[in-house]
Amino acid sequence: MKRKLNKDDVPEAVGDGRDGSAAKMVAAFTDLSIDPRLLQAVNREKFAAPTPVQAKTIPLALTGRDVLARAKTGSGKTLAYLLPVLHGVLRHKAGFSKVRETTALLLVPTKELAAQITSTLKTFTSYCTQEIRYENLSKTEDAAVTKARLAETPDIVVATPARAVYWMNQSLLKSDRLKYLVIDEADLVLSYGYEEDLQTLAAALPNGVQKLMMSATLRTEIDTLNSVFFADGTKPEILDLSAEEAAEKPTLAQYTIRTGEADKFLLIYTIFKLQLIKGKVILFVADIERCYRVKLFLEQFGIRSVVLNSELPVNSRLHAVEEFNKGVYDIIVAADEEEVVGQEEAKRKRRKLEIEEDVEGQERPSAEQPPDEESIHHEVKQAANVRKRNRRDREFGVSRGIDFRNVTCVLNFDLPTTSKSYTHRIGRTARAGQTGMALSFYVPKDQYRKHKSTSIPQTEHDERILERIRKRQASVGGSIQEWNFDMAKLEPFRYRFNDALRAVTRIAVREARTKELRQALINSEKLKRHFEENPEDLRHLRHDAETHAVRRQEHLKHVPDYLLPAGGRQAVSKDVGFVGLKSGTENSLRKRRAFNKSRGKGRMMRGRGMDPLKALNARGRGKK
């Protein structure tokens, strides 16, 4: 279905689109009236048929309708708004080929998602690179470089709301000729405290801008988005694909394990070492310290992993995701700090959402009803966590937006604090029709603080949060089952697990974090010039001695047969243990001794040589 442009080249709707004709499902991308160059790029990526969100959103967007769509993670929302935007930009360039102007602004909540969308733009504009230019303003770079890129007036700009407002205030990002405004992960943009920036952007938009908004969850955010962007009385087309998703054959299996805090480490040791779960795994933990504690613990058994958290520079985080997607690492330990990083207003909204979840199916409580004492205490602790983390990168999130590919399992080592976060975490697997698994550890009330060295305050409310998660999943057709894991069979592994856990001290965790940051500084392209001019700074970074380190225990890398239950050896596909750089049948120590003997060294002294006084030679060594 073709779009209609008015005299100002602004998309207009053909008819009101409310009869359902605009949202008619299409069977193939060729049924969509989009530019042939875009179809060629789609065919190269081997996308045969559009997903439900693409089949409903693209026809509406091509007619100029404002769309607010909700679909699950991994359903293809990015392509649902990119194709109509790219098609519109190409049409506009065909009519005004000599005019340079920014016609599309794509807003995202995190720098990682901005980089991912920029990569997707590169893929689908491969056959029209001369016509479309795009820039990512969320990069960490010198302001002069960003000014130079904006001076070229790109057709499409990708940015976080804060960056977009900043460059608009600098009069370098022009909004007077915008035709399209896209907000990806709209609910997360609001929860990150960008509401004030969105209001500023809404006031700067010219009349007739088409608005496309996408998210995996939309509840209370709809009212906020309507008040900010549709205050003039216009109504967006709201697409909720919950019914279609519920009708789909479930591809995600969800399990939970009731466990003590210390036994979480025992479980991941046996799961990864015996390969009970094979393939790529995202292991979510509560905070940055837990990231390194888990990583160092797994290293004791020769299990390699990579860490992802907001403390690392953006380039290091993107590099970690790329290495994981390429298969360099099969385990990524991630701190999902979207739960704790934000503003106080966001926390109040989250509290409101939790109240709605608690009374699902019941009448909403009045605004005057006071929360219980336990909820107030929990909220105060959450606010304290916000203040502790306010120095970290706000524009960071792991469970949202980042394109993790071919993930077999999402393992919630620490249960998330809300059912909403759980939904987004498990959305990292079972994407695009593939099967996947979500496994969550939860600590019952009677096991809380039983092992103080590994306990964290967050696990105190695991049972209550799990009940909310069960309700939420049941409402969308999902079910969570208990994984029947016989913990008694793991008792022979316990002494090895205790040795490894004791070796991971707080000092070792702190030094691991320092080492990671030091390496990120050494690899930084931005600091490369500084290190060339100040080589002494680089030397200090490279040779900063570590006073403490996790003690290497090579025997922990092997799993002896006597530790395994009956038939357990078959679960270990490959356990070759430690392999040196040079391997062979020759005994290196014997070889060195033979070499020294041939040079007259290392021979046993017999007879006269036993008496050192008689062995003296006044003429000198080797002379008679």
UniProtKB/TrEMBL annotation:
Alphabetized PROSITE patterns for the sequence: HELICASE_ATP_BIND_1, HELICASE_CTER, Q_MOTIF
GO cellular component: cytosol; nucleolus
Presence of the UniProt keyword Transport in the record: no
First-listed, main subcellular location of the protein, grouped into a coarse class: nucleus
Domain DEAD-box RNA helicase Q residues, every copy: 27-55
EC number: 3.6.4.13
UniProt superkingdom: Eukaryota
Chain residue ranges for the region called Disordered: 351-392, 597-624
Domain Helicase ATP-binding: 58-236
Residue ranges of every copy of the Helicase C-terminal domain listed in the record: 266-491
Biased composition (Basic residues): 597-606
Keywords: ATP-binding, Helicase, Hydrolase, Nucleotide-binding, Nucleus, Ribosome biogenesis, RNA-binding
UniProt GO molecular function: ATP binding; DNA helicase activity; DNA/RNA helicase activity; hydrolase activity; RNA binding; RNA helicase activity
Cell compartment(s), UniProt: Nucleus
Family named by the database record: Belongs to the DEAD box helicase family. DDX56/DBP9 subfamily.
Name the UniProt record assigns to this protein: RNA helicase
Protein's organism: Baudoinia panamericana (strain UAMH 10762) (Angels' share fungus)
